[in-house]
Amino acid sequence: MAARITIRLAGAADAGSLNAALRALSDDLGDTHGATDADIAAAGFGPDPAFRAVLALQGDTLVGFAVFSPLYSTTRGMAGAYVSDLWVAHSTRGAGLGPRLIAAARDEAEARWGAGFIRLAVYRDNPRAVAFYERMGFAARAGEVGMILEGAALRAIGDGT
User: Fold this and answer.
1) pLDDT of 1 higher than 70
2) Which parts of 20-161 are beta strand (E)?
3) Helix crossing, 37-45 with 15-29: angle to 10°?
4) Does residue 71 lie within any of the structural domains?
5) Residues 77-112 pLDDT 10s
6) 115 occurs within a structural domain
7) Which one-letter DSSP state was computed for residue 48?
8) Which domain holds residue 89?
9) Which CATH number is 78's domain given?
């Protein structure tokens, strides 16, 4: 019989296993994975964490996680949580673990920041993921375009060029 799955908040000692699971997510999506264990430890568990994570464990094995951070919506007049990463191991998919991880992130964000909503992004070319989130009640934002500023363009802002 398989061990029961428990969900808990990640701590500093989890940085390496969280990063390994983040790498598995990157591999699943065909993304580049640039974070090191030290990057995850510093960003998630330093004096001013940039993110929080909840972990799903089956015994001692990490089988899922959600990484999230605070955001604020002036239109809603409240804090929310941005779920940047959600992953469930192939061996435990289809057992309802994804919604449990989203709920755990919701509960932690509500307790920590007073979060009243969750926001996330999903790749359009991943219809299974889109359908998964829609089944939970997530809705696409009409008229919105996701954009990012990074690298040289980020550093060049405000330099007069």
Assistant:
1) no
2) 52-58, 61-73, 78-88, 118-120
3) 110
4) yes
5) 999 999 999 999 999 998 899 999 999 999 999 999
6) yes
7) S
8) 5-156
9) 3.40.630.30
